Amino acid sequence: MSNAALKSRTRADYAFFQTYRTRWTDNDQYAHINNAIYYHFFDSITNAYLIAHCALSPTSSSLIGLVVSSHCAYFRPLAYPAVLELGLRVNKLGRSSVEYEVGVFEEGEEALAAVGGYTHVFVDSASRKTAALHEETRNGLRRLLFPPPSSSPASSKL
Amino acid sequence: MSNAALKSRTRADYAFFQTYRTRWTDNDQYAHINNAIYYHFFDSITNAYLIAHCALSPTSSSLIGLVVSSHCAYFRPLAYPAVLELGLRVNKLGRSSVEYEVGVFEEGEEALAAVGGYTHVFVDSASRKTAALHEETRNGLRRLLFPPPSSSPASSKL
Amino acid sequence: MSNAALKSRTRADYAFFQTYRTRWTDNDQYAHINNAIYYHFFDSITNAYLIAHCALSPTSSSLIGLVVSSHCAYFRPLAYPAVLELGLRVNKLGRSSVEYEVGVFEEGEEALAAVGGYTHVFVDSASRKTAALHEETRNGLRRLLFPPPSSSPASSKL
Amino acid sequence: MSNAALKSRTRADYAFFQTYRTRWTDNDQYAHINNAIYYHFFDSITNAYLIAHCALSPTSSSLIGLVVSSHCAYFRPLAYPAVLELGLRVNKLGRSSVEYEVGVFEEGEEALAAVGGYTHVFVDSASRKTAALHEETRNGLRRLLFPPPSSSPASSKL
């Protein structure tokens, strides 16, 4: 999807939200949140969801998600001490990989500030070899799919 | 004050609070919040207070606070995705310098996790020469003094 | 260009190099360099080149570069305490924008570990409105163009 | 030791050195290396020494070092893109704890920019209970003691 198309995202396009307070050192010497900091946010909301809703334990799970590619488009500058609202969705759910998208909004502002995300490939935590998602992980991530899959064949007949 | 004495600090010993969500990369490879991250928190709550209550504008104020020394004692490990409650107080307010103390608590936990702080010297933002605190800054910081200065001359006669 | 095509990049595909020592907190709790850290490296080599070869002064230049989009593909994990060699090139040089690419190599290793980059739009440092690159900046960045533009019409006749 | 006394430290007061290139985001919006970044450097040189000379493997050693207190005094501002030279020494070596000191110098500058350090307590990596240093660790750290312990009674007669 092009960056121009992503610019029209609203909070209604995301399924799971968390609020993050920015920090003094998030601002670089141009006095706005540095571009790299957004990726720290992507990691934070994604792993928070995996821990809370997909039974991930970073220190003991047999499968962990490693990032193979990431991207971000920046539309409006943000600056400490703003409070940010992050929205998370899943755009694609494969056998062993997931594509997440995160929308970044400032508290009290309608317009999207930035949008990005990354692709996780799940691997065995010891061998680091690719592995199929556990059912528990798949079920948790399916709830973030956008657009939501039709939940029942019957309902699609209406 | 010794670290042992500081260990008994409670939320009642602090004057201003902010809540911070931890981030994935706050954990180092020992799976707990890295010791350096606490200093990022100290900077964040201190400057947030200066901006909100002491008229500091980091990009345009004529005086800014620079850190000349800092310290921290760690009592209990914390880990992402914990939510932290930071308490701020001022231990000493000089002509051009301030000693801040920050207590770090985990949401829902009584016991102090860490305590630290730093000394700010206020300087001219252009020349970086030491300067006396503006009255507005001094008034804002005086409200964080612990123990609070006696509020009325009458009471000091007793 | 697809990530698969980028994977075959070698040091010969880059024009400017810097060596960076990794840090303890670059490793996240999976014991490898966190995906967000690569973007800190991109910012570091790009601005170092702009300062050294394009007359950028981040605190006083009338034009500064702001990041409008960024991306990275990760091929091989890296871990502290590795020393990294970063290579920089320019893929596109517009009137007011530049597309940088950075290749990340581990010292002593042939294979590319990661590749990414970002697009800078140059803006007036005060108004933050888009502006055409200064000639000095354009000349410095042109030396990083890949493939290099033919340097003289005469030579292209051979 | 008072901060004033530490200010006179020179490179000759340290036993192990590493060079670190600063990064764009080390500078905060006051355009100098942020105070918290120095602690990231302390962690980096200390663990690099432990890995190279004390057989530490952060992912597999049975004992790991946890930071129980840290401190820093800042004498001269530093700024990206400076290259820094860090010097490491051990001030105290206990049964299960170590006090490190790190001097921060800018490449090409005589004067000390900052000095700080921290205390490591070694713990079992699984139970996180305090444990006596392994002989291999103790031997490595002893070589950093300042002032150096007299190596043999005989030699002092000369």
From TrEMBL, chains A, B, C, D:
Alphabetized UniProt keyword annotations: Hydrolase, Isomerase
Domain Thioesterase positions: 31-110
Coiled coil: none
Single Gene Ontology MF annotation: isomerase activity
Pfam families hit by this protein: 4HBT
Gene3D superfamilies cross-referenced by the UniProt entry: Hotdog Thioesterase
PANTHER family assigned to the protein according to its UniProt record, in alphabetical order: 4-HYDROXYBENZOYL-COA THIOESTERASE FAMILY MEMBER, NOVEL THIOESTERASE SUPERFAMILY DOMAIN AND SAPOSIN A-TYPE DOMAIN CONTAINING PROTEIN (0610012H03RIK)
Family of the protein in this entry: Belongs to the 4-hydroxybenzoyl-CoA thioesterase family.
Name of this chain's protein: Thioesterase thiol ester dehydrase-isomerase
Protein source organism: Heliocybe sulcata
Taxonomic path: Eukaryota, Fungi, Dikarya, Basidiomycota, Agaricomycotina
